[in-house]
Amino acid sequence: MNVVRLIARDELRLMARNRVAVIASVLMVLLTLVAVASSWAHQRGIADLRERHQHAAEEAFDGQPDRHPHRMVHYGTFIFRPLSALAAFDPGVDTFTGNSMFLEGHRQNTANFGDVNQSSLLVRFGQLTPAFVLQAVAPLLLIFLGYGAVARETERGTLRVLMMQGASRTQIVGGKLLALGTVALLLALPAIVGLVALAGQPGASALPMAVIVFGYTAWLLLWVLAIVLVSTLVRRSRDALLALIAIWAVMVVLLPRVAPSLAEAAVPLRNRLQTDVAIARDLRKLGDAHNPEDPTFARFKASVLERYGVTRVEDLPVNYKGLLAVEGERITSNLFNRYGSESYDAQGRQNAIAGAIGMISPAIALRSLSMAAAGTDFAAHRGFLEQAEAYRYSLVQRLNQLEADGVSYADDTAKDSGADRRKRVSADHWEAMPDFTYKAPTGATLAGRALPGLAIVLGWLAAAAALLALATRRLGERR
Length: 479
Hints:
It contains 20 helices and two strands. It has helices at about 5-15, 20-60, 70-75, 95, 115-120, 130-145, 150-155, 160-165, 170-195, 205-235, 235-265, 270-285, 295-310, 320-355, 360-375, 380-405, 410-415, 420, 430, 445-475, and strands at about 75-80, 100-105.
């Protein structure tokens, strides 16, 4: 039998004799299966709830009676973002950013009703998902299973015996790697099976799933190499265990928590209250559409009269108040978009800083890879917000134009008892308004967003392999 396989088989037999290791491995598999099942059920429940609420919101909007179009502008409607097909594997930022928006005229609202805000305090400590299990729990179990792989041989003096029997340093280390790598892949198998099961879901794409599987496989193999490397460098198993736990704590726990704080300190971001105050201040500078003496809208009025070749708004072939609403929405939306772009840019710079920290913590890079491929990262959330704003603006401007074309200026400004009835338009117009349809990123787009994180993880994997090769050359030398 091949020497490497013989050493690997002996290492696996030793692990199997360790009841604690066996029980921990079984619990790990069960934990992964529970994570897959619970996350799947949770995400399906959310998807069904969003679909029901979206249908109810559309029915409520379409079922409105004859109204003045501007009343419908303020009545507004709710929209809900559909879940990504891979959100059950890694929900990413979705649990924090919210999943629904209320769309209305003259305002850009934020997403609301994130799972963290709507669930128990336990959710705020992290939802049990397959991604979390593979990111944090699996490496810790591998550490306890393999910390003494080589150090134990050195400590007991059996390393020299193996070498005297003809086993080379490379074969010894290779056997340890093969054994621990086999365990790592077995631990990841339930999560991979659960991920593959998502392939049958609508909107699922094979390319981002392949990137996720490849990325997490590289992540676990990185830990296998790191564990054997540390075990090779030290002489005592206890020292290897302490060193590996310290590495895990810094890489998996500390740095991913510190990175967002460092990014926020480097690139401050306005909160919602500060943004609203700044927008209100700028809106006052832009002018008041309800003030006939306002310079901005006085110029607009003059341009409208000149365009239609009349001298009074009463003589216009369209309702001036509707045109005024169209212009006011255009101006305010441009202001909202400017503030939105500034916020997106700041958040993008924060993410770039956090990504740079990922160069010294592959756990950050892995999370970035996982969320990007699952379509649950900031880029996907931003895409939803931008599509929601485009839909909101189109809907409001359709209603404003309906006021300009469907309601006369005389009726719109009348104060008599029958004026309110004459200002209304048929309810058929509400049903004619298009519904919101979210366009999810393509599989190629999701996979492309995940490539930077994958490159960092693979870079760490290559570096660990190179260091282990160097350490293997000195294995068994007196220190």
